[in-house]
Design brief:
Largest sheet: 6 strands, parallel
CATH superfamily of the largest domain: P-loop containing nucleotide triphosphate hydrolases
Number of domains: 2
Number of strands: 6
Strand content: 5-15%
Helix content: 55-70%
Low-confidence stretches: none
Distance between the termini: 19 Å
CATH topology of the largest domain: Rossmann fold
Shape: globular
Mean pLDDT: 91
Strand order of the largest sheet: 3-2-4-1-5-6
Order of helices and strands: EHEHEHEHHHHHHEHHHHEH
Structural class: alpha/beta
Length: about 300
Amino acid sequence: MPSPALVVLAGPTAVGKTGLSLNLARRFGAEIVGADSVQVYRGLDIGSAKPTPEEQAQARHHLIDVAEPGESFSAARYARLAGEAIAGIHARGRRVLVVGGTGLYIKALLFGLAPTPPVDQELRARLRREREELGPEATHQRLAGLDPDTAAKLHPNDRQRVLRALEVCLQTGAPLSRRQQAHGFGSPRHPHLIVGLERPRAELNQRIEERARAMWQQGLLEEVRGLLAKGVPPDAPGLASLGYRQAVAFLRGEMRSEEALFDMIKKTRAYAKRQLTWFRGIDGLVWCDAQDADGVSRRVRAFWS
């Protein structure tokens, strides 16, 4: 059986992926496979801009709420679960629309991942202890000394990926970035069209600020307070993401409210810039104006026809 043809709707945070994806799903009879590294976590709804129940009722969604906030969730696990979801969608005679801003997840789904050694649990435990003792910045700096290319793509608070990259360096004596370059991401698993959504930078920055302020006002702090009350550790993988880590810092008295919100806006803008850089490195990606729904629809129709 041939692999299903996928349409991927990618782009930076706050660019408008959710609304356009629902429009496309309705037009083409598609189901949506999320590609967002925060929306996979249960209970992380407001800060991840997860589609609301009303939005999810408009089109069937997959790869949302598939992990607990305290779990590590890897790109390899994402690719496996997404592949299973895509097979089910294809069997139902529906089209597949992949939507998200996590570039590594999209690459893992479309091209697979560079092989890495099995986890050395003793080494992992030691690196975690060292991170707790020395702090995330020192751990990130250590990675930068061993694998500057990978370190440049990762925030110091991205504990899971920073530690995994360090593990690979220390286990193999070679940087993870070298393995990825050798892998090449050159043989796609599915025929696909990748549409990258963009807006003028000033407009995108304004949307990021407005959305962050709305999240703060609409219950992000209460959401995080509830997660902590249920026993989710403040350094859980899910809570290390943007917005959540600032909310945790405020609730622990490490930041004032306006300071935490400003930090969230500033770092989300920087993250959006990194996302755009990542997507520009994907061969064949077609850039479209996020407000041109009809133009995007024409490209999708031509691909699926």
